[in-house]
């Protein structure tokens, strides 16, 4: 029986703020190097991507400031909740991320942390920061779309 990626994906955490603060230019899926208690904590749905960011150092990709709280039933060797964690990517993907970060104004932000076929995955986005004007424009567009939809639904009810 073939596996459908949509049915086997379980989202643990999302970074909704990233899409508001950045233009997402491209996305990359990365695996994570985690300890056993971190995986158990993630399976309970506990994680935060709000302060997290990714970077490339010495040819390896890492995620910084991603908060995974200690597992309650864990032992005294629970790792630091915000420690630097290695990302599992192909060498070519790491090279393209490093090239993107080298360009002025681009950064790597985590968008979503999820389990896919039992493995913890992190969706990374190569992003360019939005200016305040762009954010206001996006909010105005969203509000206008909401008003149009509301008017359309009202017209359909009136028929």
Automatic annotation (TrEMBL):
Q: Which PANTHER family match?
A: SSRA-BINDING PROTEIN, TMRNA-BINDING COMPONENT OF TRANS-TRANSLATION TAGGING COMPLEX
Q: What is its main location?
A: cytoplasm
Give the source species: Eiseniibacteriota bacterium
Keywords from UniProt, A to Z, are: Cytoplasm, RNA-binding
Query: Where in or outside the cell is it found?
Result: Cytoplasm
The protein, known as: SsrA-binding protein
- Please provide one cellular component term from the Gene Ontology annotations of this protein: cytosol
Q: What does this protein do?
A: Required for rescue of stalled ribosomes mediated by trans-translation. Binds to transfer-messenger RNA (tmRNA), required for stable association of tmRNA with ribosomes. tmRNA and SmpB together mimic tRNA shape, replacing the anticodon stem-loop with SmpB. tmRNA is encoded by the ssrA gene; the 2 termini fold to resemble tRNA(Ala) and it encodes a 'tag peptide', a short internal open reading frame. During trans-translation Ala-aminoacylated tmRNA acts like a tRNA, entering the A-site of stalled ribosomes, displacing the stalled mRNA.
């Amino acid at each position: 029986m073939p596996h459908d990626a949509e049915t086997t994906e379980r989202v643990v955490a999302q970074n909704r703020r990233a899409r508001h603060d950045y233009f997402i230019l491209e996305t990359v899926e990365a695996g994570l190097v985690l300890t056993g208690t971190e995986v158990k904590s993630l399976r309970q749905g506990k994680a935060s991507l709000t302060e997290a960011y990714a970077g490339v150092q010495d040819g390896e990709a890492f995620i910084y400031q991603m908060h995974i709280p200690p597992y309650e039933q864990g032992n005294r060797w629970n790792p630091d909740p915000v420690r630097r964690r290695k990302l599992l990517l192909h060498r070519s993907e790491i090279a393209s991320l490093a090239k993107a970060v080298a360009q002025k104004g681009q950064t790597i932000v985590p968008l979503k942390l999820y389990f896919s076929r039992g493995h913890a995955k992190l969706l990374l986005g190569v992003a360019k920061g939005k200016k305040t004007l762009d954010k206001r424009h996006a909010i105005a567009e969203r509000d206008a779309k909401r008003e149009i939809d509301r008017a359309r639904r009202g017209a359909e009810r009136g028929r």
